[in-house]
Amino acid sequence: MSRIDDATALGRAPVVPGLKAARWAVSTIFLLNGAGIGVWAAHVPLVQARAGIDTGMLGFLLLTIAGGAVSAMPLSGWLSGRWGTRAVVIGSGLLFALTSAVLMNVAGIVPLFLAAYVFGAGNGVLDVAMNANASEVEAARGIPTMSSFHGFFSLGGLIGAGLGGLLIGAGLGDGRGALMVSAVIAVVVVLCARRLLAVPPAPHAGPHASHFALPRGPALFLGLL
């Protein structure tokens, strides 16, 4: 077992080196995720106008993002079981940054919908992985902390929406502003990488745990919401 598991079995919070840094690192990931989504939300009308789609088609575009997220979320758990949540947070965080830039710069209906699906998938994997990593930090601290992580996500959404509006007002709504934001997100994800808490995958995550299931029933309904 890991040190976290050993300490949990003894009923006390484990002593984990770099735990404070790990908490702030995953908090930053939540902030970046919220900010990226906020910037995207501010650019939605411009993306719609650039693509020349009506509100009905825009609804399908947003549904495509949601579909990408729901379909990829089970994959996040499978990947985390193989390589740990830190590796998945880093990889999906970089994918999120890249695809958000593509989504706000791509031209053409088909490329736009493909970018929307991959953007949603990257965000879905990141969502699950960063929450799992945050749960590991919370367990290591022995103190309820999850609400603070979600608070950082909400704060990031506010910052991102405001920043998106400022970029558009400055004449950078043609995609250049989105590229700059995505570059910043990618750089900060890399800077946070070494500080994220690394918990080794569970020993039982072997061949018998290699499968994953798509959500069904109530889980699928909640995911679509």
CATH C-level class is: Mainly Alpha
Number of strands: 0
For this structure, the CATH topology is: Growth Hormone, Chain: A
Name the average pLDDT.
Answer: 88
CA radius of gyration: 18 Å
Oligomer, anyone?
single chain
Structural domain tally: 1
Percent of residues in β-strands: under 5%
Kindly name the structural category. mainly alpha
Distance between the termini: 37 Å
CATH architecture: Up-down Bundle
Helix content: over 70%
Q: Low-confidence spans: pLDDT under 50, at least 5 residues? A: 1-12, 205-212
The profile of the biggest β sheet is:
none
**Secondary-structure element string:** HHHHHHHH
Number of helices: 8
Task: Describe the protein.
- With 225 residues, this protein is an all-alpha fold.
- The chain has a single domain (18-194), classed as MFS general substrate transporter like domains (Growth Hormone, Chain: A).
- 76% of the residues lie in helices and 0% in strands.
- The protein has helices spanning 3-9, 19-51, 55-83, 85-103, 109-141, 146-169, 176-193, 218-224.
- The protein starts with a helix and ends with a helix.
- Mean pLDDT is 88; it is low at 1-12 and 205-212.
Main attributes of the structure:
single chain; 0% strand; Growth Hormone, Chain: A; mainly alpha; disordered N terminus; 225 residues
Short description:
By secondary structure, the protein is mostly helical.
Write the layout of secondary structure elements.
Elements: H1 3-9, H2 19-51, H3 55-83, H4 85-103, H5 109-141, H6 146-169, H7 176-193, H8 218-224
Helix pairs in contact: 2-4, 2-5, 2-6, 2-7, 3-4, 3-5, 4-5, 4-7
